[in-house]
Amino acid sequence: MFKSMKNIDTAFRYIRLVSLAVILGLSVVTCVAIYKGYEYSGAAQDRLYVLINGKALEAYASDRKENIPVEVRDHVQMFHQYFFTLSPDESNIKENITKALYLADGSAKRMYDDLTEKNYYGNLISGNVSQTIRVDSIQLKLDDYPYSFRCFAKQEITRPTSTVIRNLITEGFVRNVARSSNNPHGFLIERWTTLENRDINVKSR
Q1: Sequence-ordered list of residues with C-beta below 8 angstroms from that of 193, at least 6 positions apart, any chain
Q2: CATH number of this structure's domain 64-204
Q3: Most exposed: 30, 80, 109, 169, by fewest CB within 10 Å?
């Protein structure tokens, strides 16, 4: 009988030891899983997937300061593309100018109003003239805020009888604003002025 009780006691100790080992092992596994979960969650917050042409491409989040030169240049380029890319179609002109005016302050609106008063857009439509722009370079000064820029570009104005290439130089300042669907970079062009806009080549068609 004593031998039987001794065996039961030994078995109970063995079961208790195994149970403690299992509990300890599960606790370690749980702690590691929780730690890895937080680690993965933190890493996942730095990842962004962009859908382009039906394919998900991974992008990485970074400090806005690191991207300021790239974003400012793209903002300035987008503004000039919208403002100066025109076709002999009233709705197209209004659509592009509207997009451009979301990216700049009243200085761009004043230039648009001046061109409208001079019937510039009306002459484009009646003369079947189209206009495109190619931005060659954008110089930035980021030491002071608001940031200043100077844009160097070429305009191509296509008329029924000729094609004119114009040299365009503009400058202005850029400040931060809230991002939106109409202003994805979150910048606003201020005090925008044209320094040069002259013909450099004329070709007959």
Answers
A1: 107, 170, 171, 172
A2: 3.10.450.230
A3: 30
**Backbone angles phi and psi of 149, in degrees to 5:** -145, 160
Listed by start position, the domains of the chain span 2-48, 64-204
pTM for the whole thing?
A: 0.70
CA distances from 149 to 28, 41, 45, 84, 142 (A): 57, 39, 33, 18, 9
Q: What is the mean pLDDT of residues 93-111?
A: 96
Distance (Å, whole) CA 84 – CA 88: 12
| Percentages (nearest 5) of helix, strand, coil residues in the chain | 45, 35, 20
Q: Which two tokens stand for residue 58?
A: 């991974």
Q: Which two tokens stand for residue 133?
A: 């722009």
**Alpha-carbon span 96 to 83, nearest angstrom:** 6
